[in-house]
Design goal:
The complex is a heterotrimer of chains A (325), B (443) and C (638). Chain A has 325 residues and is mainly alpha-helical. Chain A is built from 15 helices and no strands. In chain A, helix 9 (189-219) packs across helix 11 (234-255) and helix 12 crosses helix 13. In chain B, helix 3 runs parallel beside helix 8 and helix 14 packs antiparallel against helix 16. Chain B is globular and about 95 Å long. Classes of the chains: A mainly alpha (325), B mainly alpha (443), C alpha/beta (638). The structure holds adenosine-5'-diphosphate, iron/sulfur cluster (2 copies) and magnesium ion.
Amino acid sequence: MLAYLIRRLLYAVPILIGVNVITFALFFVVNTPDDMARMQLGVKHVTPEAIEKWKAERGYDKPLFWNAAASGAGKLTETIFFEKSLKMFALDFGRADDGRDIAREIRQRMGPSLAVAVPVFVLGLFAAISFALLLVYFRATYLDFAGVVLCVAMMSVSSLFYIIGGQWLVAKVWHLVPISGYGEGLSAAKFIVLPVVISVLAGLGASARWYRTIFLEEITRDYVRTARAKGLSERLVLFRHVLRNALIPILTGAVVLIPSLFMGSLLIEAFFGIPGLGSYTIEAINAQDFAVVRAMVFIGSALYILGLLLTDISYTIADPRIRLQ
Amino acid sequence: MKFVLLWSDFLFFLLVAGGVIFGLWARRVEHQRAAWRKVGQSRVGMAAATVLVLFLAVALLDSVHYRERLPGEGEHYAVEVRSVLDALLTPLRTRPEKTYSAPLATHSFAKENIAGEGRDFPRLKFGGAHLGEALSRHGADIALRCAQGLGLGAVAGLALWLAGLPLRRRAPHLAWDAVFVTLGVFCLIAGPLAMLAQGYHVLGTDKVGQDVLYLTLKSIRTGLLIGTLTTLIMLPAAIFLGILAGYAGGWIDDVIQYLYTTLNSIPGVLLIAAAVLMMQVMIDTHPQWFSTSAERADARLLALCAILGLTSWTGLCRLLRGETLKLRELEYVQAARALGVSSGRILTRHILPNVMHLVIIAIVMDFSGLVLAEAVLSYVGIGVDPNTISFGTMINTARMELAREPMVWWSLTAAFVFMFVLVLAANLFADVVRDAFDPRLAR
Amino acid sequence: MTLLTVRDLTVEIGAARPVEGVSFEIAAGETFALVGESGCGKTLTALALLRLLPEAARIESGSIRFAGEELLALSEAEMRKRRGGQLGMIFQEPATSLNPVMTIGAQIAEALALHGGGASEAKAVDLLSAVGIPDPARRAREYPFQLSGGMKQRAMIAMALAGAPQLLIADEPTTALDVTIQAQVLELLARLQEARGMAMLLITHDLGIVAQQAQRVGVMYAGQLVELAPRTAFFSAPSHPYARRLFAALPAAGRRGRLQTLPGSVPSPAQRPDGCRFASRCDVALPVCAHEPPPWREIAPGQQVRCHLEEPRKVGAGGTAQSGAAVPEPPPATALLAVRDLAVHFPIRRGLLQRPVGWVRAVDGIDLELPAGRTLALVGESGCGKTTAGRAILGLQAATRGERLWQGEALKGLAPQRMQMVFQDPFGSLNPRLRVGAIVKEGNPTADVGALLAAVGLEPEMAKRYPHEFSGGQRQRIAIARALAVDPQLLICDEPTSALDVSVQAQILNLLVELQEERGLAYLFITHNLAVVEHLAHQVAVMYLGRIVEQGSVDEVMRTPQHPYTQALLAAVPRIDTSGKADRERLLVPGDPPSPAQPPPGCHFHPRCPRAAARCRAAYPEAVQLSATHGVRCFFPG
Ligand SMILES: Nc1ncnc2c1ncn2[C@@H]1O[C@H](COP(=O)(O)OP(=O)(O)O)[C@@H](O)[C@H]1O
Ligand code: SF4
Ligand code: SF4
Ligand SMILES: [Mg+2]
């Protein structure tokens, strides 16, 4: 068991390295730092000196892999690859192109992101599973059919519509909560309610339908027939036998997302003015801040890989067939 | 006039041709025909397919591009690249107002200083211009045009139904009634729209006075292209690598698994954001590559498809790998090996045809997700070129005006409704296709 | 006293009626066996008794009276009290019929809570020990995957007993089990039934089990009962033409040569004829049979037959088979294929670096000689390494050590022109996307498809069709044609008939015999079915845990078995005893076969062997040659 987990952990290392190499290639090989500088400075200000200055301020003036001018280990370390890519393994993200410290920014913005993402995750899972269970309990009736139609319709609506429509209706017409913004501590609650409800609603159709399929597949298994032959009621069969088996793939499938909750949601945070990592990323994209985007790619991947690891662990906990092997 | 074949046009036509060839092939192959017949027998499937075909027709018309010859001496062509759809919709395209106007309005949405009369809502240049001073006839005119349109639509629907009779006779087991009901509904909607559009901006105008109906119709091509080309681009890699990993096993499997796990672990939006940013730098620093802005926008569209493809092949690849692993152990593959059949032949004869259903299901299932993704990405600023008309760019420009009082709701609504119809049709069609092809459900 | 009375039970699925007009009775404490081939409606009948039909199916009409009460009139809540409480049921697949994420104890406790007066761990453990599970307290805390197949089925039985039912419905309870385990479970069922005075509805396709366990028999065909009889009457004089043909199709000792077969196949539930459903396959059919449903007639006390014939027993050749001349000849001097010390070990990888920490010794050094034009049967229970051995002999599976000599010359890898294989699963062995013609041509593009199809008894026009249009038996014929296309001299048949019904199995066995006579084919016939061995083989090798424990001519091994395992295997097969006496005093080997990853030290069989002595635990016995052909690996043969 432990060996298995250590092996999975070790397996994560080459993947992280791969991500690092991909981002490096994307940001420094596809385009040279000169291109970036030109783009950032705009057509009017492009002079060779301005480009050099821009690069030097941000540490992009070094060679990519091999610094012949430096001495000793510096030949390797005083390079863009080392400074900008390898240091990310030590969670050293350097400064944003506008000069601010990325790591500090991330620490500050994690809280608001989590404040929205965690309730969305928990409530969304709960709502989708409950809805799916309801449909399965009434399977092969008109209620089930109507529910599936509703799911398909809900997943055909753009998430932008949920956000814009929700904001308009709840905040503008009914004036129930502020349209956007964020507050510290408990005052954050009134800003969080709407984005959470909207996110849960936007994701409900697709996941409920998917979970319904999982439940229906489970319900055809032989052990369900055995449970019925014991004389268990349909409700007990569903909750005690089917649910427990179906939840293993559902919950372990959800675990992979947990670490990524830190990253927040781009759309929701941008629309509701929540100062989290999602809106940070959007701002960076709009400002074409390469350093921030690069850092976010790396963190996002690292969190996802952590999620994979947690999935493995949760599987071994949840499923006796794996736990006891 | 000079025809222009944009890269995306070329690929789109290639795709349609591929679809036709696939259709001809599928007609001859028993299991394909059986599965598609199931799709054809489903009412929902046929109705959804009809809607998709209508959308496809619009997109195809919008994919035949040309540059108009300028009047005057010599071979000079307009820089603007137009499509056949543009030509068909010339009245819509060439009658811009100054700024916002509500659907079917005769006056502008915003008050303006009108010389000599103070601030008021100015009359529109084109919307309702035919009414002249007889503004009291506005409502009656609309009703009349609607009635005319409905009549026309009914006639057209009837004509289509008659024209379809031979089809029904040739293939009586298919759900033709769903097709003709859908077409009928379409005619009854399109008729009044067409009649009204001749005198009004049916869906209003946007900030710079462009007709929203025109914009919405133009958005269809972008959505369809992203939904299909992306899959087309990623398909070869996904199929090849997935099957190879599953069949070869060993280090080949390890390498391919590593590849897709790594790519998959970068959050999709961020990878797209990073790649699009870089692509933008590339396009911006090489203006000499593109002779018209249409080409530039086109390049960006294709690059977006490629990037989306890059991030979305991993799912299908993993699925195919798993399926191939299962198939490899099946007895007919074992029997082929025992008979000395080569690996290449086993892959093409035994593995590929038996994973084809997964590929087809993936193509139809991915489509709707990609159409929705385009809107979100364009909104975030990492989608299509801001000059490309798409649902995303429409929503993006319209959302700025949400805060206005009263609200400018028509652009947003039009974009959302069209997108909803397209995606819903795609989702329903995908469901029917999956049910028809999934062998687990076939039992 | 009658416990259960079923009258005119009809089950509908859509427009089809997979069960129609079934009536029978079961007395308290009696075992009633329902026999029939797969798909004839046995399981649906059983599920209908519990009102547990699958969602698509419903009871169209009929009456089910249990202990004086009409079950079909009960509310669902009332019915639930009967389920598990008065009617218990056990199913065919122990592997999938238990909830994989609940402990065995919890699953039994659940049944106890409903019917047994409260859940208690102690009671669950008692039940487990009552069904003969060793160390029941520990097993109660384990999950299903930690138990062997036989133990899972025992646990299922314990669960069914929790409510102390008056009627136990057992749907093919031993079909998924090995024959030695089957014998244990059948013995357990008989013992429990006697001790508790329970009635039992035993569903099976195996006439041997019926002969051994049942007091009365019902034969089902295409959704209907066609014969009802007490066991003795049934086995001494099966009367319905279908029942008689079924007996004739059974392979058995002393019946070499051709088996009687039933032509054609069972009509599908969707399109059943108006008259007698057996009419199209019946060799004694009357003109009236085609359009008029036959009436029930009582032809002997308690024996009823549904047939138009006044005295069905007297008509036709029915019950006996021609016995062929089949004295096994001594094998030819040179072997076609000799296998020397062949072994296949699969690594068990564990730990950080996935180093092999042990080996599954699936095949652990076997020697075989396959003479030309003869059949060697490789017999053993599931997991003993038969399939792996066959694949290694063919070259499909790399061997860990050992060699294969083709007429003295060493083989490397596959030899497609010399050896071919026919697989077990008729549904997995043909690519559904290819036409039959393309499948047959797979190994030899120039093959004459028409002639090959004709040779295996199919129509040449069938080349244009796809596999899904064929029944299991026909598919197996296609698979044989595909192998024959390259004109091999040796055919390795891995359980080619174990997925087929008896009547179809007979057709395939006949075909194999014919092909051997015509083409001089040699067979390596891998099977667990000893009756088939006696029918078909010239020589037999018995395998246990990766090694061959006894080898010899069919007479030597089947008549005078010397290894205790062979003897146990033979004893475990339920025999059809026409006298109708049940002989329960059989040699039962206890326990389960050990895992090939950790074979017991010394003789692998010693933990289960009644003759085991100290030296058996110390060393693996060398082969003892009892005759020129008969060898056995046991310290105490005899
Ligand atoms: N590829 C494999 N990897 C590991 N173990 C295997 C493999 N194939 C078979 N085995 C094991 O080898 C043993 C013999 O299997 P098999 O040859 O299939 O037996 P049989 O044909 O008698 O059912 C079993 O315990 C099985 O689990
Ligand atoms: S009724 Fe006729 S066809 Fe049916 S079994 Fe009797 S004799 Fe044969
Ligand atoms: S060697 Fe001993 S344990 Fe093995 S079969 Fe013979 S008597 Fe039994
Ligand atoms: Mg086997």
